[in-house]
Amino acid sequence: MTLLRTIAEVRDHVKSARDRGLTVGLVPTMGALHEGHGALMRRAREETGYVVVTIFVNPTQFDRTDDFQKYPRELDTDLAFCERLGLDAVFAPDAREMYPGDYQKMPLTSVDVAGLASRFEGEFRPGHFRGVAMVVAKLFNIVAANRAYFGEKDAQQLAVIQKMTADLNFPITIVPVPTVREPDGLAMSSRNQRLTPDQRRVAPLLYQALREAERLIRNGASSTAEIKRAASALMSRNPVFRIQYLDAVDPATFEPLVQIMGAVRVVAAVWLGEVRLIDNVLVDGA
Length: 286
Ligand code: AMP
Fold this sequence. Notes:
By secondary structure, this protein is of the alpha/beta class. The chain folds into two domains: 2-177, Rossmann fold; 190-283, Pantoate--beta-alanine Ligase, Chain: A,domain 2 (2-Layer Sandwich). It is built from eleven helices and nine strands. The chain is globular. It binds adenosine monophosphate (AMP). The site of adenosine monophosphate (AMP) has 17 residues, from helix 2 and strand 5.
């Protein structure tokens, strides 16, 4: 496995893989790797001949400086993780390689997936999806992969990237990968490390509330207000939870649905102390 630090090195290695007739898979991450990332990597390993994982804590997608500063960084452990999965290359650039100018003084080109990017995560984390879309567009151009792998854990991010890819005609297939959970249901996330033992114990209530919403919908409930009430009540039993949003949305546009008909994604964000967790379930309407 090769550790690549510069864009020029990535281009060289990918070109030589393509010259050898290999298809290229891309798995963008911010590191602090866990089995959620592992699922994306395994899938990429199965489906493509040359797998590039990127590890970059992208400053432009953080809306809070403390979240950026406290985001776990553990490159050596991450490299060992990728090595064990038999991947080909890790691209771990520093911020200057990705953003050479002073982007605070000289604003960047912006990739704005209008509407979709301003709801929910976009509303509560202003600028977040502009940062995500920008860095993913850059990685698509740097790595020139055939397939890129994204988790359903971040369903709105996935929708933003699918729309950006279609609208801008990136020649790449986006592969969604189902959410990987801890045995108690908590979706794996690098931020889980920052939960206190008490917070960690109650954290699975988030997924339980989403499952309750799913159960109601499958049993024929169609009023979002009623579903929200029941699912929120479940979490509110525990005073540590501060619900930021919980809603039923159109899976492609993330528009909130008042009445539920057909496929719906139930999405939620909560605060547990200083840690913000998000999760979602897709109810296919079948
Ligand atoms: P991150 O490092 O948090 O930016 O995540 C990198 C990629 O891994 C994104 O496509 C995430 O959606 C995906 N991911 C993170 N956690 C999980 C999980 N628990 N299950 C599946 N995919 C995940």
